[in-house]
Structure prediction request, 1039 residues.
Amino acid sequence: MTSKDFIRQSDGLGSAAAKSQSFWRIIHTDPSLLVGLLLLCAFGLFVLFSASGRDEGVVQRQGLTMIVGIVVMFVVAQFNVHFFRRWAPSMYAAGIALLGVVLLIGVEAKGAKSWLDLPGLPSFQPSELMKFVLPMLVAWYLASRPLPPRFKHLFWSAVMILLPTALIVLQNDTGTAIMVAMSGIFVVLLAGIRRRIVIGGALALLMVSPAWYLFLAQEHQKNRILTFFNPYRDPTGAGYNIIQSQIAIGSGGIYGKGYTLGAQSNLDFIPESNTDFILAVLAEEFGLLGILFLISLYLFVLVRGCHIAYRATDMFSRLLAGSITLTFFLYVFVNMAMVSGLLPVIGVPLPLMSRGGTSIVTFFIGFGLLMSIQTGGRLKVR
Amino acid sequence: MTGKWQLKDHEAERALFDRRLAVAAVFIALLFAALIAKLVNLQVFKHDYFSVRSDGNRIHSQFIPPPRGLIFDRNGELLADNQPIFNLTVVREQVEDMESTLSFLSTLIRLNEDDIEQFNNRMRRNRVPFSSVPLRYVLTEEEKSRFAVNSHKLPGIAIEHQFVRQYPLAALTAHSVGYVSEINREELDRMSDAERENYGGTNHIGKTGIERTYEELLHGTVGYEIVEKNNRGQVMGTLDRTDPVAGKNITLHMDSRLQIAAEQALGEFRGAIVAIDPATGGILAMVSKPGFDPNLFVTGISTRDYKVLVTDEINTPLFDRSTNPYPPGSTIKPFLGLSGLHNGLVDYEFAIEDPGYFRLPGVSYRWGDYTLRTAIGGGHGHTNLQKAIYQSCDTFFYALGNRMGIDTIHQFMSQFGFGENFALDISYARTGVLPSREWKMASRGEPWYPGDTINSSIGQGYMWATPLQLATAVSIIANKGKVVQPRMLKEIEGQAFQGDIKNAVPDVMLNDPDYWRFMEEAMTMVVHRPYSDTFRDYGTAYEAIAMADRDMSYKMAGKSGSAQVVGISQEIFHSTDIIVSDLNKDHGLFIAFAPTENIQISPQIAVAVFVENGEYGSSVAGPIAKQVIDTYLLDILQIDFAAMEAATDSLISQVDD
Prediction:
């Protein structure tokens, strides 16, 4: 009521803005976020054209996938956020069931048995969906409990996180497992878990990791870590990717070699230049300035995500929005850090830049949820 | 904490969430900052380093070897050609299982342990990733097709071609033209940096003969190509290119028809023949028999083949008989005779009464006449210089040499190239020995004895000369003293080769130029003086040459010689496989030039024939020389001596009228 009065008082100057705002609310869309995402998509397609060796087919397919993603995002945004809250436990149960089905009849690709190829549906990875379903459930669970969460609640949260994580690890897809686990952990962190526990947990992880390395880690995982510390121990094998991508990035310099003029990528020295290592192409052709431009686009989206989380009216929405935003950031950071040699190689795509179907649609589902939170919460107040 | 249903404090919870969100934002900022720091480090501070690495990745400079110059004979026949061969190569990165690939390959092509070991050695050397490494050289057509059918099962294995030397005459030119073979470490170490760079793309270098002498001319200048390669080593584009400069094509004086004829003329004998065009010094033929197939060395001779060549101590095919010295025997008599005339020790009439032996005053030892060893004994009786030549009278030359003394012999004979290498471009030829007091003191540590002079006077003892030297010396007689240094090279890319004029050897000047005619006459008698009633008054080679060919249309001058075999190794001496007496036989020699006593043309060819264990100079080496001269004058130059004689006769009769 009071806001209505305020709008009426500031007539003339505010009515146009109010009108347009109401338009965006009606279609449940956050214009700022949309602009940020469209810019990212456009830039992504632009870079992909060069990275794919000027293959228009690849760019067209990627563009089509992005359109599908944006449509999915609009659809998701139309649902009220409380719909997701109500259905969180069921969706979680369904997700776990799907993960179980994948273990039984899943299709293997690139060493991970994570794909589900059901008749009549495009093949997809149920594990990707868990990145939203898991934080939904944890947020649903913790939002109705007093915060900071108590130990008992933390225990159950941990169970909720570990169950899908374990199933995905069994699919031999450690990278996704880590990301899914992190999406749940972000909720717990945002819910105000006590600092002691966070620090204790981090220390424990640090202590356990050598043991993991010695007793549990598989050969290829050990290799990746050894390669991270010294890529030149096997320059034509395990270290090849990181050496070549560093050469590409470094030789790009501040201004880059120019669009489609990246020698490293055009001459196929960069492996996976369309997918996980697309940043190397960008860095080579557009230099440091290109990367800074990309980072600022991501920052814009991240700031908007944080803003949505900050402005959300209820705790479930806040926790979910925060987790989605942080998961998105995690993807961006891990990929960039891996390509530039700051982290060991983990197969993680660069959001909206890397070529790929499921990952792009999944990110848009996340942004759909953010928009649902942004526009849905307000509508409810009205 | 107190009860199950503690009331939610929305404001506090919200504040807690906001704080956590703020912490998350700080983390995001920090992590991005770390990322940017890393990128700045890579792109700003290490930019130069990575730029070089990037260029090194894609930009490869590759050498383009120049095509080696071809070698032609005087008629444009190829003596050394470049032919493509096909090699099997391996790109290690593209081979999945080396072990099984090699075992499968060995069912398709000949691949022995030697090949695989050499291949592994090449692999161990530093190499660029995705570069191809040769596994087997010279695939046969059959192997190529067998591989082609199966190549889809053999990723990373390919056939590459390369140009290598090929010698059409094979063993015939093995020593004179020589051969190229893979460059070795030593040869590379000897080169200057610039030279080594010039050989960057070349695998082969001239090892012997012309191939070695004119290596610089034949090799050419290496070219460069700067190319951009992708990560599979495929060339994506050429950034810069400097074309190689092909090696020069050269033409030799050699006439391959004469070379073939000379080799055939030797028949079953081991030996050497050198034929020179006296007008130019051009070497028309230079044969050392037996030869070997130089093509074996080009792509790397197998240990087995090489062993066969080096362990054959009788035939010693690798040994170049044409440029290595032997005792020249009586073939030096014409030169000694000229020296006698020039130095006033004898004249045309001077004669001795030959008892068949020579004795130094006050010494009881008799130097017998070798030429009469198997004959009925006694001497040559009344013997002047010409008879001493055509009858090859040792006693005459013992006495002449004794009177002349070694110093004069040495001084005079060195003008004909004895003890020296007159050849312009056969630097590897040995110089033999033209003995002197200084030489004996230096090499033996002994003074010169008068007896040494006696031995030297008939080309024995310390006197050693190569067939090349003998041919050179006899060509000087044919030229009446004009020295034309022997040479192999005739033209470079069609331009006549002049040779090094600064170091030209002075002509031989005699007190009376008629001495040349006199000696030519004496040497012509060696071949043409027939049997008569007078005892021992025919040419030593008459029976084997002039009498054997009654239709001989031209006259030739010659001198036979035989030399005692020295230094047969004990190993061969006691070998049961060989009849020792064969290896103990004298070497037969014959020097000749033709035509002589021809008022229309000067001598066209000078020849030295050396027949190892041929026993007789006149009857074994002589006919061989005749055969070579016949081929050159009658078959190659196609001189019609009958027509020439008829023209001369009619001219004379016109003058008479």
Observations:
- Residues 30-78+218-382 of chain A form one domain.
